[in-house]
Amino acid sequence: MSLRKMTRRVMIGNVPVGGGAPVSVQSMTNTPTEDPRATLEQISRLAEAGCDIVRVAVPNLRKDHLLRRALRSLREIVEGSPIPVVADVHFDHTLALAALQAGVHGLRINPGNIGSREKVMEVAEAAGKRGVPIRVGVNAGSLRRDVLERFRHPTAEALVESALEEIRVLEGCGFYDIKVSVKASSVPLTIEAYRRLSCEVDYPLHVGISEAGPPWTGTVRSAVGIGALLAEGIGDTLRVSLAGDPLQEVRAGVAILKALELAREGVDIVACPTCARTRIDVAGIAAELEDRLAGCRAPLRVAVMGCAVNGPGEAREADLGVAGGRSKGLLFRRGEAVGWYPKEELLSVLLSEIEKMEREYMEKHRDSREGG
Ligand code: SF4
Question: What is this structure's pTM?
Answer without folding.
Answer: 0.90
